[in-house]
């Protein structure tokens, strides 16, 4: 997900965050006890999440012989729940497989970005400067990811982005030190969906997406291939992040009278749209197709019958029958008593990616460029998300599923695979050079001629 | 724009107004007598919603949830009034800062207790689904929210204008010192009113949980913002003002999002700014 916080909420949220910082700093007894003396003072403000044996808000003792991985994930703030999923997935891999790779210990050091670009950048700086990490993995939000990626690229620090999906990071504005193992571009999956929906015989689509970069890119992917395959986009609605009441948009959709609707939403907006869709009785009237985030497991956990039967496109399908997926899903369920979201699956897969790359360089990550080359060369024949490898731009070629929400025997909702599209790249079937000559998807450019 | 579309948006606006009135009425009641701008009202709403949600998940009974959420938050309000607000009575800035502090604490506590995932209140079958209004179908729950708001509004109006309690409260709004001099325990009245205002916030939180869903740190702030616009428009402390303000904000929200989506927030705040310039006391407020 590449959400950003609505501008009007930033100030109150910042104050909230400040209040939280104080609360966390005050409520972490003994946080300073094991910290190196020279760092104890400046750590007082850091609400880090307890990761393995790292107490809250402190820089752990660093094993000089270990490979240190800085993990950036928000565990406070509005996206804290998904940030926790990221950590859960990442930790599960090392718990299962042991943290020793090629004779070296992999030490993960988590820092909380709080979902804020400047906090994220500060924490990244600290991981690099004070802790001396060998690479950074994460974060969650696109604005945080962009801030971290640009600065760390300047400092020649390897940055791996399994979640941040801003299209241009592996398209028109590639950074040498930034790769997306187990990652994606926002429009990578929706390209598949647009063509699929057109091939099902739907002709008139309305799109409703969040009015910011992730929404524009997700929607652009759908609109581009849907219209190329002969469909017509009759109306595009852009709702602000944090839309409280979807009834107005429902009315507009009904008025436009489409035969299919595509929607990208994140977080609470997903829950509200799905709720509104059902309460206004559209479930049986107009087919709704979602992007990855609309019906991600992180939201399905808190949805009810209204979500059953809804279809979406996605690169992780927790109900996929493949053994690699089900082993991961069951292990995650045992460990955390919930089904994994794509945040968890991508971080789990990224952990394996890192392990294989470290193996390939025989545990020597001192040469950052050589390590990144090893990351580029990793080929996962199978993973919870299916086979994966990076294209020459640093973004995975991966399987994408059309998914449908069903209820499991244990009562939980999950996505099952309806159809799998293999080896999907970020440019879909377009020629990369021609594709890159077009501007990045935006509200103005949706790939509709 | 077809007639159906206009009618549909009218219903959307009015049902949203219903929720807004439930939130704003408690807010404006407290302000009217106590002159406290209770910025923890959004936090009360959020806590009410979560308690309601927990009760629904445990018992499946939405009415029990509404009762439990409302009462629990009413008690929370009493605790806040007696243990915190009473100490800074009459000092405006400390009062407001105190309520902000409580608002943040409530937001963080809900995050700690119920987690950061957005939640939605499941509704029983007889409340979900839609009613046939002749030429369009409309969600039953939203219709009920509108009716509930009207019923609460009428009950509040009767309470304030026909009962002794209402008379005391109205007299208190006009002249607090006089009321105290007449031998009425104004402290008790304050606490009682705070209980009642918080109770309404808790009830609206349960309704809002089914209407809009719950997100800690977001739902509370957004609803507080809407409530502030409503009461500033209608006049701080005025119940009829809260009703009119709710309807105006609800309708503007519905039609502006449809007609000028880029300006949805501008159209919400512009009328408030105009009212503040031309009639600082609000449409139905009285000059202080």
UniProtKB/TrEMBL annotation, chain A:
Keywords: Signal. Residues 67-406 form the Leucine-binding protein domain. SUPFAM superfamilies: Periplasmic binding protein-like I. Residues 1-30 form the signal peptide. Pfam families: Peripla_BP_6. Residues 40-52 have a biased composition (Acidic residues). Residues 29-62 are annotated as: Disordered. Gene3D superfamilies: 3.40.50.2300. The keyword Signal applies. Belongs to the leucine-binding protein family. This is ABC transporter substrate-binding protein. It comes from Phytoactinopolyspora halophila.
């Amino acid at each position: 997900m590449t959400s950003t916080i609505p501008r009007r909420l930033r100030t109150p949220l910042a104050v909230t965050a400040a209040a939280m910082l104080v609360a966390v700093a005050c409520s972490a007894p003994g946080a300073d006890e094991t910290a190196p003396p020279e760092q104890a003072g400046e750590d007082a403000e850091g609400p880090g999440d307890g990761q393995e044996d790292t107490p809250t808000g402190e820089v752990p003792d660093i094993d000089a012989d270990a490979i240190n991985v800085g993990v950036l994930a928000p565990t406070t703030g509005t996206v804290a729940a998904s940030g926790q999923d990221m950590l859960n997935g990442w930790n599960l891999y090392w718990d299962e497989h042991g943290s020793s790779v090629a004779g070296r210990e992999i030490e993960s050091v988590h820092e909380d970005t709080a979902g804020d670009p400047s906090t994220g950048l500060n924490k990244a700086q600290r991981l690099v400067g004070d802790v001396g990490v060998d690479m950074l993995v994460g974060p969650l939000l696109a604005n945080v990811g962009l801030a971290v990626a640009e600065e760390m690229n300047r400092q020649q620090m390897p940055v791996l982005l399994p979640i941040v999906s801003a299209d241009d990071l592996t398209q028109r504005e590639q950074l040498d030190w930034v790769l997306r193992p187990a990652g994606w571009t926002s429009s990578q999956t929706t390209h598949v969906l647009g063509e699929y929906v057109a091939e099902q015989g739907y002709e008139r689509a309305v799109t409703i997406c969040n009015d910011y970069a992730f929404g524009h890119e997700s929607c652009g992917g759908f609109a581009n291939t849907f219209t190329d395959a002969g469909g017509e986009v009759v109306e595009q609605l852009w709702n602000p992040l944090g839309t409280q009441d979807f009834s107005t948009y429902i009315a507009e959709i009904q008025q436009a009278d489409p035969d299919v609707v595509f929607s990208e939403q994140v977080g609470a907006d997903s829950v509200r749209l799905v709720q509104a869709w059902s309460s206004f009785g559209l479930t049986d009237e107009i087919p709704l197709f979602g992007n990855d985030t609309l019906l991600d497991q992180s939201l399905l956990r808190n949805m009810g019958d209204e979500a059953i039967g809804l279809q979406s496109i996605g690169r992780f399908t927790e109900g996929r029958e493949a053994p690699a997926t089900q082993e991961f899903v069951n292990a995650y369920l045992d460990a955390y008593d919930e089904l994994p979201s794509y945040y968890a699956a991508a971080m789990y897969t990224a952990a394996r990616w890192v392990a294989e790359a470290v193996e390939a360089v025989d545990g020597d990550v001192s040469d950052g460029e050589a390590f990144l080359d090893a990351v580029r060369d990793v080929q996962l024949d199978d993973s919870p998300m299916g086979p994966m490898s990076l294209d020459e731009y640093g973004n995975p070629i991966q399987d994408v599923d059309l998914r449908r929400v069903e209820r499991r025997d244990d009562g939980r909702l999950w996505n099952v695979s309806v159809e799998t599209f293999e080896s999907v790249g970020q440019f879909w079937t377009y020629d990369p050079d021609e594709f890159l000559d077009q501007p990045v998807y935006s509200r103005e450019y949706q790939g509709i001629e | 724009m077809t007639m159906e579309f206009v009618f549909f948006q009218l219903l959307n606006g009015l049902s949203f107004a219903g929720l807004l009135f439930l939130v704003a009425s408690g807010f404006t009641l407290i302000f009217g007598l106590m002159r406290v701008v209770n910025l923890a009202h959004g936090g009360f709403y959020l806590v009410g919603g979560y308690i309601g949600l927990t009760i629904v998940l445990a018992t499946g009974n939405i009415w029990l949830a509404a009762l439990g959420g409302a009462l629990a938050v009413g008690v929370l309000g009493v605790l806040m009034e007696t243990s915190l607000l009473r100490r800074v009575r009459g000092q405006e800035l400390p009062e407001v800062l105190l309520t902000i502090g409580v608002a943040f604490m409530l937001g963080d506590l809900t995050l700690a207790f119920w987690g950061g995932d957005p939640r939605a209140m499941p509704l029983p079958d007889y409340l979900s689904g839609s009613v046939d209004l002749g030429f369009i179908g409309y969600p039953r729950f939203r219709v009920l929210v509108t009716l509930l708001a009207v019923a609460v509004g009428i009950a509040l109006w009767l309470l304030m204008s026909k009962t002794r309690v209402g008379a005391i409260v109205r007299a208190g709004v006009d002249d607090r010192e006089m009321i105290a001099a007449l031998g009425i325990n104004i402290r008790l009245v304050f606490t009682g009113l705070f209980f009642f205002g918080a109770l309404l916030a808790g009830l609206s939180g349960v309704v809002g949980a089914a209407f809009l869903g719950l997100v800690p740190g977001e739902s509370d702030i957004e609803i507080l913002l809407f409530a502030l616009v409503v009461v500033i428009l209608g006049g701080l402390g005025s119940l009829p003002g809260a009703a009119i303000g709710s309807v105006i904000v609800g309708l503007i929200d519905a039609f502006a999002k449809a007609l000028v989506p880029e300006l949805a927030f501008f159209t919400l705040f512009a009328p408030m700014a105009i009212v503040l310039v031309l009639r600082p006391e609000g449409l139905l407020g009285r000059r202080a």
